[in-house]
Structures are given as structure tokens and as C-alpha cells.
């Protein structure tokens, strides 16, 4: 019976991890959609740069939000590992993240990690190149 409690607890944590990963994936999709839409409105013949500059705002916002979801995912992965090490009588179904877990990761470091930089830097580069095209 105690083993089933531990398995249920681990399943709860895994569901949170899955939800965070899904949110991160959706944010990347929204980022591309918004940037492409705003660049399409920019009309490259007349190059209305207002739409191009406005495209930077959601990219930076979504990058930070994506970093938050990845940060949360890492925290819950650590909680998952800690629960695996718990004795069966210590299972309490708490989703509170201890200070030890929180101190192991930093939102800013996750946001500029090798996981997110390869996606968001090229998107920002495309926006900046589109902004510079009329000057050429």
C-alpha cells in the first residue's frame, strides 16, 4: 500500500513536469507565429519598421516565460529525484519545493541556457536583420 502511495506521488510530479514541458513547447510555437505575422504586416516593400520593432516585445516576453517554465520543470525534476529517495513512510504528497531545491537552479541561468538560446537568439537575429534591410 505504501508503495502505491509513492507511485501516485511520483505520477503527480510527473504530470506537472509534462505540463511544464508542454507549455514551453506551446510558447515556442506562439513566438514563431507572432514574429512571422508581424513581419508579414511589416510589408517589406515599404518596410514599416514599427511592426518589426514590436515583434521584439513578445519574443523577449515569451523567452522569459519559457525560461520560467523550464526553471519550474527543473525544480520538479529535482523534487521527483528526492521523492525517489524517500522511505515509504515519508511520502506526504507535498508539492512544496524546499529551499535546497530552489537554490540548486536559477531562473536567469535557465533562461540563458543552451536549451533556450539556440531558439530565441536566431529569432531575434531575424527580427534585427529585417529591421536593417531598409538601411542596405
Structure description:
With 136 residues, this protein is mainly α. Helices cover 76% and strands 0% of the residues. The chain is built from five helices and no strands. The protein has helices at 2-41, 49-84, 99-104, 107-111, 117-132. Helix 1 (2-41) packs antiparallel against helix 2. It starts with a helix and ends with a helix. The mean pLDDT is 86. Keywords: Membrane, Transmembrane, Transmembrane helix. This is DUF3899 domain-containing protein. The chain crosses the membrane at residues 25-44, 51-71, 117-135.
Mean pLDDT: 86
End-to-end Cα distance, whole Å, is: 71 Å
The number of helices is 5
- Low-pLDDT ranges: none
What fraction of residues sit in β-strands? under 5%
Q: Helix content range of the residues, please?
A: over 70%
Task: Return Rg in Å.
Answer: 20 Å
In total, the number of domains comes to: 1
How does the overall form come out from the CA principal axes?
A: elongated
Largest sheet, strands/sense/barrel? none
* N-to-C order of helices and strands: HHHHH
Q: What's the count of strands?
A: 0
Amino acid at each position: 500500500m505504501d508503495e502505491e502511495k509513492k507511485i501516485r506521488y511520483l505520477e503527480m510530479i510527473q504530470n506537472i513536469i509534462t505540463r511544464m514541458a508542454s507549455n514551453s513547447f506551446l510558447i515556442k510555437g506562439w513566438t514563431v507565429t507572432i514574429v512571422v505575422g508581424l513581419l508579414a504586416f511589416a510589408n517589406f516593400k515599404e518596410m514599416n519598421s514599427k511592426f518589426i520593432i514590436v515583434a521584439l516585445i513578445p519574443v523577449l516576453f515569451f523567452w522569459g516565460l519559457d525560461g520560467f517554465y523550464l526553471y519550474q520543470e527543473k525544480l520538479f525534476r529535482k523534487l521527483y529525484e528526492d521523492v525517489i529517495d524517500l522511505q515509504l513512510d515519508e511520502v506526504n504528497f507535498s508539492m512544496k519545493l524546499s529551499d535546497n531545491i530552489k537554490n540548486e537552479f536559477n531562473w536567469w541561468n535557465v533562461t540563458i541556457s543552451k536549451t533556450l538560446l539556440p531558439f530565441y537568439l536566431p529569432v531575434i537575429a531575424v527580427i534585427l536583420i529585417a529591421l536593417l534591410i531598409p538601411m542596405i
